[in-house]
Design the sequence.
């Protein structure tokens, strides 16, 4: 049996909690020049053999009968630099209007494969099919990240809260969401969709359809 999981929780954590944002109004000497930087790490494939004393964690497989599984985490960590255009205080409410001036994105992909020591050739090849699907979409990740950033750079975002700093954070959160959504739709969701189709076509590695053929068909249906 193969399980392939898209860790959206991990993705959201990097997008919203770990997002690093700085304001040009805070840091002296900050340039208003627009800039997009995308840093893409090589794919990290982690193959592990498990037994009774070394098993996948519960997030990956929480059932002892699981024979093999593959899961993947897309890293999408932005640093967003903004220029505050306007600050309004009305009664006890602060509203910040910011313009995005610089975006730096760090992309990564970790694919973790768990196999029992007795895994058959068919099972190993099936899990490798999931790896090929991940590789396919990660090839396009840099392009899609840059495209997402192009849709956010120079745009204005607004945030309101009880304090000035919190209003800035709200505006940056809106910018982060606008940045993440296109990448998620272009890379992360299709990976999950293609892998689900692949598992259905191969009956989780039990069907006789060749892996390469199943991967091609799964990718075609995910587009």
Sequence:
């Amino acid at each position: 049996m193969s399980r392939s999981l898209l860790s959206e929780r991990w993705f959201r954590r990097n997008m919203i909690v770990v997002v690093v944002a700085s304001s040009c109004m805070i840091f002296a000497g900050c340039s208003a020049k627009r800039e997009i930087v995308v840093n893409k790490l090589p794919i990290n494939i982690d193959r592990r053999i498990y037994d009774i004393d070394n098993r996948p964690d519960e997030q990956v497989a929480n059932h002892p009968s699981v024979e093999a599984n593959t899961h993947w985490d897309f890293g999408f960590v932005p640093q967003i630099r903004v220029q505050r255009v306007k600050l309004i205080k009305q009664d006890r409410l602060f509203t910040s209007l910011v313009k995005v001036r610089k975006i730096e994105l760090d992309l990564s992909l970790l694919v973790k494969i768990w196999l029992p020591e007795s895994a058959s050739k068919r099972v190993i090849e099936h899990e490798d099919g999931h790896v090929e699907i991940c590789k396919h979409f990660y090839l396009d990740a840099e392009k899609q990240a840059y495209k997402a950033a192009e849709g956010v750079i120079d745009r204005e975002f607004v945030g309101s809260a009880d304090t000035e700093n919190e209003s800035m954070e709200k505006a940056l959160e809106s910018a982060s969401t606008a940045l993440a959504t296109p990448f998620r739709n272009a890379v992360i969701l299709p990976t999950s969709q293609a892998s689900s189709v692949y598992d259905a076509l191969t009956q989780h590695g039990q069907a006789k359809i060749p892996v390469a053929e199943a991967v091609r068909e799964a990718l075609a249906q995910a587009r």
Notes: Strands lie at 4-6, 20-23, 35-40, 44-50, 69-90, 93-116, 156-161.
